[in-house]
Amino acid sequence: MADQEFELDLDDLERRMNGALDALKHEFASLRTGRASATMVEPIHVDAYGALTPINQVGTVNVPEPRMVTINVWDKSLVQKVEKAIMESGLGINPQTNGTIIMLPIPELNEERRRELTKVAAQYAEQARVAVRNVRHHGMDQLKKNKDGMSEDDQKFWQDSIQELTDTFVGKVDQMLDHKQEEIMQV
C-alpha cells in the first residue's frame, strides 16, 4: 500500500446507479400494459396558468375500474387543455369528457401495439444502462485523478470494484426490462 491512502466512495456510485434504476422504474410505470394505472398519466404536463404543470396538480387522478382512469379537473377552464395534453401525449387514448371529469377508457392492446411498447421499454432500459455507464465513467475518472502514489494492485482492485458494481446494475436493468416486456406481451 502507498503512503497516501485512496478511498473511492463506492456507496456514492451505488446510490447514483440506484437513481438510474429508480428513473427506469418510473418510466416503466408510465408504459401501459392493458390495465389502468394512475402512473400512466404522470409524465403528462398541462399548460396551466402559463406554466407546464403535472396532470396530478390540476386534478384528482383515480382508477375506478381495471380499464378506466378518471381525472377530476379542479378548474373548469383547464378541462380542454388537459384533454389536449392527453391526446398529444402518445398514450393512444381518446379522452371522454363529462363536465370536469375526464375519462380515459383503456382499450385492449393489439399485438402490434404490444410490440411497439416493448421497443419503447427497450429504449428506456438502454437510457438507464447509459446512465449507469456514465456513473462508472465518473468513478474511473476519479480513480485516474488519484492514481499517483497508488500501486498497480490498488488501481486494479478499484477498477474491478467499479466494474463489478456496473455489471450488477446493468444486470438489474436487463432483469427489469425482461419483466416489463413479459408483462406487456401478456394477453
UniProtKB/TrEMBL annotation:
Taxonomically, the superkingdom here is Bacteria
- From the Swiss-Prot or TrEMBL record, state where the protein is found: Cytoplasm
An example Pfam family from this entry, by short name, is RRF
The keyword Transmembrane helix belongs to this UniProt entry's keyword annotation: no
Keywords linked to the UniProt accession: Cytoplasm, Protein biosynthesis
Principal cellular location given in the protein's record: cytoplasm
* The Ribosome recycling factor domain, residue ranges: 24-185
Functionally, this protein is described as follows:
Responsible for the release of ribosomes from messenger RNA at the termination of protein biosynthesis. May increase the efficiency of translation by recycling ribosomes from one round of translation to another.
Q: Which family does it belong to?
A: Belongs to the RRF family.
Protein name (record): Ribosome-recycling factor
Report the source organism: Sinisalibacter lacisalsi
Taxonomy, top ranks, is: Bacteria, Pseudomonadati, Pseudomonadota, Alphaproteobacteria, Rhodobacterales
